[in-house]
Design goal:
Elements (H helix, E strand, L loop, with lengths): L7 H13 L4 H7 L3 H4 L1 E4 L2 E4 L7 H13 L2 H9 L26 E2 L2 E2 L1 H19 L13 E5 L6 H9 L9 E5 L4 H8 L7 E6 L6 H16 L7 H4 E5 L2 H7 L6 E3 L16 H28 L6 H15 L4 E6 L7 H13 L17 E3 L11 H6 L6 E8 L7 H18 L3 H10 L4 H7 L11 E8 L2 H22 L10 H15 L8 H21 L2
Parallel strand pairs: 5-6, 5-7, 7-8, 8-9, 10-11, 10-12, 12-13
Antiparallel strand pairs: 1-2, 2-13, 3-4
Bound molecules: glucose-6-phosphate (G6Q).
Length: 554
């Protein structure tokens, strides 16, 4: 395997960058009235406008050359065929199988995995409908009013993001709550408002060993038992989503109420599996199927479209272009929809846990920047906080604008303003405001002489700041499915370009190991071998824990 910098394409791209880096987007648009038409793509109902990027046809051709040289097509086909491409964990990567429609086949090691996928999907959707319609009741026969998903990371971020995004679509009869943090304040804050007889807990954990999830689930069960239920009632209030039936049983959950998935589903790629149960509870079986269909449509596009017209491939290449040739260390994602408020957090995990790596599959250093920092907030709110830095800060920060067109609410005027702001921001970043224009504005406002000169530099916008706009027709499950699959495949392509394994996450292990050791040391007085800072902090933590314990004593 080649380091990205060892490819022929890289050398030519570096030379080409020296030329195009100074090109002005305003000029590129002036030179080519067809630029939007030529540099936008439709797939899965989405439109990607990538025309406001600092590139030209030659840049794109060279980047496609890089994708070819790095074997994107073969890698993609290997993933879809179920080859064990997660090589540090010896697993296939088949979240795409989870959204395949009934009647599809997918042989992995000579076995068609689809019957099992469909069996769990149907059972999970039936269960969700049963709860929604009030057929599933608590131990005393009460209908369920509140559902609490207990899970973290991949077992939380996807369902949480999607439930927020699609809120109101399926008229859920229950309120949904998400508890992820081991900070007991989160669980306590939720439980305080709930009636134990009417609460259903979904414990979502692929491994069923994650300390945060097991701690929260254990406390939730204790709360249930302290509020009128007995051991035998637990089965009516707890269901599990996991790959480990043994541990689910040991916890006291009836495995008849467990929804399984497989080791070839990575946590951050799992919202399409039974991990998506809260989504099905929120929007119903039909909505969940539409979510899968949207993603499947993007999968087909990714597999079938030529590289130069392939939306995830283009998005990935543009991301690499800024990261490695312009040195952009972050990517800002701004959805112009409050319902997509959790999207940046979701993408943070998807992108940074997948590609935040420095070592290639063959163990050598990648040698160039990999995943940028992903961050963002919904617009228009973000305009009133960090957009100052996007417009006038010294760093180049590419932006992905996400723009859903149609909305469900009927408040007049709002959507017009929201869309206008989204379009205006990408334009403002690109065109900027030069000296002549600012001078004219200041003069028109009555300023002159020293006063004008003093204000002038503060009012300048350099412009030439790039962005993509992903246009969604609406905030339907189908559109959301396509959007998430788009980013999944973008991340996959970037992983291939950089030569990293996008599907492991060894970087989260060290902190976990140390936390478990330090948790033990907080209970004892003897100190482990630590540096002076860690010892000092442990001592302060012990004092804090002792004060909390003495406050709790009657
Ligand atoms: C995702 C990661 C990670 C995982 C959580 C929860 O890709 O693997 O975020 O989802 O650590 O793990 P469990 O589902 O096993 O509790």
């Amino acid at each position: 395997m080649k380091r990205p910098t060892e490819t022929d394409a890289w050398r030519v791209l570096a030379e080409h960058h020296a030329v195009i880096a100074t090109a002005s987007l305003n000029q590129l648009f002036a030179d080519d009235p067809q630029r939007f038409r030529r540099m936008s793509l439709s797939a899965g109902g989405l439109v990607l406008d990538y025309s406001k990027n600092r590139l030209d046809d030659r840049t794109l051709a060279l980047l496609i050359g890089l994708a070819v040289e790095q074997g994107v097509v073969d890698a993609r086909d290997a993933m879809f065929a179920g080859r064990a491409i997660n090589d540090t964990e010896g697993r296939a990567v088949l979240h795409t199988a989870l959204r395949k429609h009934a009647g599809s086949r997918l042989d992995v090691g000579g076995v068609d995995v689809m019957p099992e996928v469909l069996e769990v999907r149907e059972r999970m959707l039936d269960f969700a409908e049963g709860v929604r319609e009030g057929r599933w009741t608590g131990h005393a026969g009460d209908t369920i009013t509140d559902i609490v998903n207990i899970g973290i990371g991949g077992s939380d971020l996807g369902p949480y993001m999607a439930c927020e995004a699609l809120a109101g679509q399926g008229r859920p009869r229950q309120r949904l709550h998400f508890v992820s943090n081991v900070d007991g304040a989160q669980l306590a804050g939720v439980l305080d408002r709930l009636d134990a007889r009417r609460t259903l807990f979904v414990v979502a954990s692929k491994t069923f060993t994650t300390v945060e999830t097991m701690t929260n689930a254990t406390s939730a069960r204790a709360w249930l038992l302290a509020n009128g239920a007995c051991e035998r009632d637990v089965a009516k209030h707890f269901v599990a989503v996991s790959t480990d039936a043994g541990r689910v049983r040991d916890f006291g959950i009836d495995v008849a109420n467990m929804f399984g998935f497989w080791d070839w589903v990575g946590g951050r790629y799992s919202m399409w599996s039974a991990v998506g149960l809260p989504i099905a509870l929120a929007i119903g079986a039909e909505g969940f199927r539409a979510l899968l269909a949207g993603a499947e449509c993007m999968d087909r596009h990714f597999v079938e479209a030529p590289l130069a017209a392939n939306m995830p491939v283009i998005l990935a290449l543009i991301g690499l272009w800024y990261r490695d040739f312009f040195g952009a260390a972050s990517l800002c994602v701004v959805p112009y929809a409050q319902a997509l408020a959790r999207l940046p957090a979701y993408l943070q995990q998807l992108e940074m846990e997948s590609n935040g790596k420095s070592v290639m599959r063959d163990g050598r250093a990648v040698g160039v920047g990999t995943c940028p920092v992903i961050w963002g907030e919904p617009g228009t709110n973000a305009q009133h906080s960090f957009f100052q830095l996007l417009h006038q800060g010294p760093d180049l920060i590419p932006v992905d604008f996400i723009m859903p067109l149609e909305v469900a609410h009927e408040l007049p005027g709002h959507q017009r303003l929201l869309l206008a702001n989204c379009i205006a921001q990408s334009k403002a970043l690109m065109v900027g405001k030069g000296e002549a224009e600012v001078r004219a504005e200041l003069s028109a406002a009555g300023l002159a002489g020293e006063q004008l000169e003093r204000l002038l530099p503060h009012k300048l916008f350099t412009g030439n700041r790039p962005s993509n706009t992903v246009v969604m027709p609406d905030l339907s499950p189908t559109s959301l499915g396509a959007l998430i699959a788009l980013y999944e495949h973008k991340v996959f392509v970037q992983g291939v370009l950089w030569g990293v394994n996008s599907f492991d996450q060894w970087g989260v292990e060290l902190g976990k190991q140390l936390a478990s050791r330090i948790a033990g040391e907080l209970d004892r007085d003897s100190d482990g071998a630590h540096d002076a800072s860690t010892l000092g902090l442990i001592e302060l933590a012990r004092q804090g824990l002792a004060r909390s314990a003495s406050r709790r004593k009657p």
